[in-house]
Amino acid sequence: MILSGELYKKADEKFLVAQFNLNKQADFLESVLLLVKDGISARDALRLVAESNNPVHRQVAYIMLAKLREGFPFSSGMEQLFRKEIIISIVGAELTEHFADSGLKVVAHIREQSTTYRGVFAKLLQPVVYLGFAVGLYVMFSITIWPRIAELAAPDTWHTLARINYSAGLFFIHYWPYMIFLTGLVLCGVWALLRQWAGPRRKLLDRAWPFTLYRSITASRVMDFFNTMMLAGHDFRTVLATALTHFPPYANLYISQMHMQLREGRNIARALDVGLFTKHDVSRLRLLSELQGLEHTMARMGAEMRRETLSRLRVTSIILSGVGRATVALSYAGLVASLYLNVESLYTQLRAQMTGIL
Question: 76 Cβ partners below 8 Å, 6+ apart?
């Protein structure tokens, strides 16, 4: 019973974390930090949030309150619930004189990231929907139309294209779980390769699609992490050291080089010029930081990099969506054509048989 209770508790926590996405994390922190800004203690602010109508916020607040009662700081209560970079940023905000104001800056930055990620997900989902619709056409024909024709004539007497389309539909019907599993396995393999492979030839491949697109996404995420940490009051050397423990091997391939450049006495603009960010971005950082300060410049640069990355993903999505729409159109045209050719072929066979009889 004790073991089952512990397993249930762990499963409940995992389910809570799955529900507690980036946008909900920002909402929760904003609710607490606004109360703290009004003069309420962090513990009392969590008590008020624990009485809210939002069930996810209530559970998170109860877990954090339990940590605070044990004497842990606010940021320790966030462990296992919030994203790592958010926790690190709140740790930095706790060290400043204005915890609520520093924390709210971090929340504003999180919201920008969340909006970008939602846009990326929506764009990349469109091609998948089109391909699913194309498969659905084959399945629909194999369930509703081809069986009726099979009642009139055996499939081995059909037109070749009709037999192929019928077989394709049956294949999708019977083997769709394996197709989904295999597709997921391939996608996971590609994703792991993009994240983990940091060999000497990786920088050469970063010039080719889709590696160049992933490099752009990684550069945007790294800059977002830098901005979030610096908004919380961390110096750039600490930011780089922390980033090395946060990102996968591919990003660390560049971050470790930045860290090495900084230890050798290079300035920040020179340290960032290791190939992850474009020459244009580094030149812009070098010029603007002299006029507007490093923190403001990096925040502005991060916003522009997010827009550029989203623009590239939008173009990629448009191309893939076009391929998806073409696949749907060709599938529908092929199915209708095979139906027509099949009926014509069967009619010709029937006519030949009738002629032979007469």
Answer: 67
What DSSP assignment string belongs to 208-237? STTHHHHHHHHHHHHHHHHHHHHHTT--HH
Q: How many CB atoms lie within 10 A of CB 38?
A: 9
Measured distance CA(86)–CA(75) in Å, rounded: 9
pTM score of the predicted model: 0.66
Over residues 298-323, the pLDDT tens digits come to 777 777 777 787 778 778 878 888 88
Rounded distance between C-alpha atoms, residue 311 and residue 23, angstroms: 22
Element at 129 (helix H, strand E): helix 99-140
- Tens of pLDDT, residue by residue over 155-165, are 888 888 888 99
**pLDDT of 5 over the 60 cut:** no
Alpha-carbon distances, residue 208 vs 204, 218, 338 (angstroms): 8, 15, 39
Contact 48, 115 (CB under 8 A): no
CB 250 within 8 A of CB 197: yes
Mean pLDDT of the chain: 80
> How many whole angstroms separate alpha carbon 151 and alpha carbon 155?
9
